[in-house]
Amino acid sequence: MESLKRKIIEEGRVLSESVLKVDAFLNHQIDPFLMREIGKEFAARFADDGITKILTLESSGIAPSVMAGLELNVPVIFARKRKSLTMTDGLLNASVYSFTKQETSEISIASKYVSPNDKILIIDDFLANGQAALALIKLAEDAGAQVSGIGIVIEKSFQKGRNLLEYKGIRVESLARIQSLNDGKVSFVNETMEGIGL
Ligand code: 5GP
Question: Could you give the angle at the alpha carbon of 178 between the alpha carbons of 173 and 184, nearest 5°?
Answer without folding.
Answer: 160
